[in-house]
Design goal:
57% strand, mainly beta, 806 residues, 3 helices, Maltoporin, Chain A, 5-stranded mixed β-sheet
């Protein structure tokens, strides 16, 4: 999964390029070159749905990480998932999980190297970038597995043999925000060039407990060797460290039974910027009963933190012969995670994980002469994910250890045939072979008031016998530590010792309750092969207009999970139909692209909390079919020599056509009709919740981005003012569609003012983001412990940025 390294023509500061035509000054929107289809081509000539954001625009919009891409791409949502895990959705297709060994649905690549974990997006080196490409829809031919929703390509600026140059940017803003990044390009000889870049970014948290902060630094070095026109070798190495407290959430309230089989949200009364781990947050937490112990929660015990490191080495070798170019891209990447966090109202989740991958892609791309052009190649990927994770829910202590090894290889090809000078047909196919070996186990310590199910269904009058008499687990990392703690604090008979590989019942010495220690190993191998393919056609209606239509398939790998008796899930599949048009009008001053799409999803994987083997678990399951259909319009208008107007509009109708949840109390807080299945779990009858027809999560009906940029020439200087706003329609942040998961429609508006000389040697920019100063819901959690917790978006931020180019 790699891209060739080519430069891109970027928009100028005012968004237009001056040209001479018949002795008169005209202006036109400059071409953007992308490599999303493994070749350099104009964005206007590619029959795919892709948003490309250049490096200057990323800096201007304050996009410092992958999550901030939400600002520029209406189809995209990247939400915090817990720790370093991110949930990435494109047009309602994605996955939401706190388990990093579960494959993402959107493929993220850095410098042409596919990164296997969703956490990799958090550590992408987001500085000194040439551009970011967001491909919408399945990419099963050129990108392969785990790209059912699309792909995100993060492409750094490459070394150049032309001249010594570089830049330095530094900025300061509210929340004590400081950011600095810079790069230097140094030709060392006629055939060797070095480019070095770095970044430092630090900001206080948006919440009172210090969460939702930023503390990141990174470094990248690339060496280019180009002895002749036919051969180029580029080697790169990068390192990023993410520290600080990490993302945080706030209690919106707690769901309480209404006595009629439903639940009512009782508001917490806390401010949305309170966070969980403050005096007020903990005081509220102390008022909540935790099942199945029926005791009140204690304060958060741990200091939350992130200490996550991302690094890698990759190379790109291009050799050109008559007829085309051979490209080889070998890579090694590693992620070391150590973080404590509490997003879903955990006392603390503790992630200790190592992700390491090796990959190589080799391909041949034919030249552009003749009616037939093609790409053929092969790909190999090997990955190990080793983790020791704890999800401390205070009265439930799940402890996970696992090692997953994935080996995948693929062969692919795509050809384009010019039937006429204006009509082309495209066909592509990919064969993928997946193998996963999983060796892991989960051991749960579950505290019940009274006896084990079903006798622990305690009447309200008996709660007093539990409150204050139940053990509140600390955040531990193995079962022996849990036993040692229970013995040292007098909860369990010292004669009962830890027995590996067994289920154990541990009566509390005070007689108030019972602890069930479960044991669930998963040791298995998964194999799957799949052929995915694409068929498309392109018709040049005129020199500046193209119509295209395509059909493409994609699939996401199945795999394993530690979910108490439900160890596997199956692959998911998607078929996508697309019809689009790309156009330039008014002598290149107006660009209008439009697209209609229809995606059919089968055996969709979703992740949600449910009950299994007496424990609340995060379960990934294949739940049926879904459909995403809609339209996408993208407009850029160079209205005058100094005025650029842009608009992006997406209409999306994404629904779950066949969505059922099977669960029982207390995880039956789902806003869908249900029937009883006749089965019993822990003394409660299992319900079949039929949520078919519900709107897919993170799928607003309308998404609109509008912007205008005006340049005011002042002698040898320019004053450049821009305003942009984005509007997202009503949407849901959770499958259950309960009250706090509803994300109301909202605007977010930003503005900036830049003063610079016409030669662009330096600039001073003042900026303000989220002028409305509204913190809308960004990520919602229906907590396994019963609380409604929400990650809110950023408040108003503002500051100044200084830049110098040399």
């Amino acid at each position: 999964m790699a891209l060739t390294g080519v430069s891109m023509a970027v928009l100028t500061q005012a968004g237009y390029a001056e040209e001479q035509a018949e002795g008169e000054n005209t202006f036109a929107i400059e071409e953007i070159v992308i490599t999303a289809q493994r070749k350099a081509e104009s964005l206007q000539e590619a029959s795919i749905s892709v948003d490309a954001v250049n490096g200057a625009k990323l800096l201007k919009k304050g996009i410092a990480n992958a999550k901030d891409l939400n600002k520029s791409v209406p189809a995209l949502t990247i939400a915090d998932g817990g720790g370093a895990t991110s949930a990435i959705f494109i047009r309602g297709v994605g996955n939401r999980t706190t388990s990093s060994y579960i494959d993402p649905a959107v493929a993220v690549s850095y410098d042409g190297v596919y990164m296997g974990r969703a956490s990799a997006a958090a550590g992408s080196v987001f500085f000194d970038l040439e551009r970011v490409e967001v491909l919408k829809g399945p990419q099963g031919t050129l990108y392969g597995r785990n790209a059912t929703g699309g792909a995100i390509n993060i492409l750094p600026v490459k070394p150049s043999l032309d001249e010594m140059n570089g830049f330095l940017t530094a900025g300061y803003g509210n929340y004590d925000a400081f950011q600095m990044q810079g790069a230097i390009n140094a030709p060392l000889s006629d055939t060797v060039a070095l480019r070095v870049a770095g970044n430092y970014s630090k900001r206080d948290g948006f919440n009172k407990d210090g969460t939702s902060d930023e503390d990141t630094h990174g470094f990248r070095a690339q060496l280019l060797f180009q002895p002749n026109d036919n051969l180029s070798v580029r080697i790169g190495a990068d390192y990023t460290k993410i520290g600080g407290v990490g993302p945080g959430s706030t209690y919106e309230g707690n769901y309480s039974s209404d006595g009629e089989g439903g639940y009512t949200l009782v508001p917490s009364g806390l401010d949305i910027d309170e966070g969980m781990n403050t005096e007020a947050g903990n005081a509220y937490r102390n008022t909540l009963l935790g099942a199945p112990a029926f005791d009140f929660f204690n304060d958060i015990q741990d200091d939350w933190y992130q200490d996550n490191k991302y690094y890698g080495v990759n190379a790109e070798i291009n050799y050109t012969i008559d007829g085309g170019t051979f490209t080889i891209i070998p890579a090694w990447r590693r992620v070391d995670q150590d973080s404590k966090w509490g997003l879903p109202s955990f006392n603390s989740g503790w992630i200790q994980e190592r992700d390491e991958q090796y990959s190589v892609e080799a391909r041949f791309t034919s030249d552009s002469e003749g009616p037939l052009n093609y790409i053929v190649g092969g790909y190999f990927f090997n990955e190990e994910v080793e983790g020791n994770n704890t999800f401390n829910q205070e009265f439930v202590l799940p402890l996970q250890e696992y090692l997953q090894e994935t080996t995948a290889w693929a062969a692919f090809g795509q050809l384009t045939y010019d039937v006429t000078d204006t009509f082309r047909v495209i066909g592509g196919i990919r064969y993928t072979d997946d193998k996963k070996d999983f060796d892991g186990l989960i051991e749960n310590f579950i505290t019940f008031c009274g006896g084990l199910p079903p006798s622990n269904v305690v009447p309200p009058a008996s709660f007093a016998t539990c409150a204050g008499n139940m053990p509140h687990y600390p955040t531990l990392d193995n079962p022996q530590q849990a036993f040692d703690w229970l013995h040292a604090n007098g909860w369990v008979d010292p004669a009962i010792t830890y027995t590996p590989g067994s289920v154990q019942v541990l009566p509390l010495l005070n007689g108030a309750g019972t602890i069930l220690k479960t044991y669930e190993p998963v040791n298995d191998t998964y194999n799957n092969t799949k052929v995915t393919w694409r068929a498309a056609m392109e018709w040049d209606v005129s020199d500046d207009s193209m119509l295209y239509a395509s059909f493409e398939t994609g699939y996401r790998s199945g795999g394993f999970q530690l979910a108490e008796g439900i160890p596997t899930y199956e692959p998911e599949y998607i078929d996508a139909w697309t019809i689009g048009s790309k156009n330039r009008f008014l002598d290149g001053r107006l660009q209008l692209n439009a697209e209609l799409f229809w995606w059919d999803y089968k055996d969709q994987q979703i992740t949600y909390f449910t009950i299994s083997n007496s424990a609340l678990v995060s379960l990934t399951d294949n739940v049926g079919q879904a459909t995403s259909k809609g339209a996408d319009i993208d407009l850029i208008w160079a209205a005058t020599e100094n005025t650029i107007i842009n608009a992006k509009v997406q209409y999306l109708d994404a629904t779950y056509d066949d969505l059922h949840f099977f669960t029982a109390s207390p995880r039956d807080n789902i806003n869908c009709p249900y029937t009883y299945t006749g089965e019993i779990a822990d003394g409660a009858e299992i319900k079949d919740f039929d949520c078919s027809g519900n709107q897919a999560i993170y799928s607003p009906k309308w998404s609109i981005n509008l912007g205008i940029e005006q340049t005011f020439p002042i002698g040898d200087y320019n004053l450049i003012a821009s305003v942009d706003t984005r509007w997202r329609d009503d949407q849901w942040g959770g499958f259950e569609q309960i009250e706090h998961e509803f994300i109301e429609a909202h605007f977010v508006t930003s503005a900036d003012l830049t003063f610079e000389p016409v030669d662009g040697k330096w600039s001073v920019t003042a900026y303000i983001h989220n002028i409305e100063d509204t913190r809308h819901r960004a990520t919602t959690q229906a907590a396994p412990t019963g609380q409604a917790v929400t990650v809110f978006g950023a408040p108003m931020t503002y500051g100044v940025r200084l830049s110098a180019n040399f």
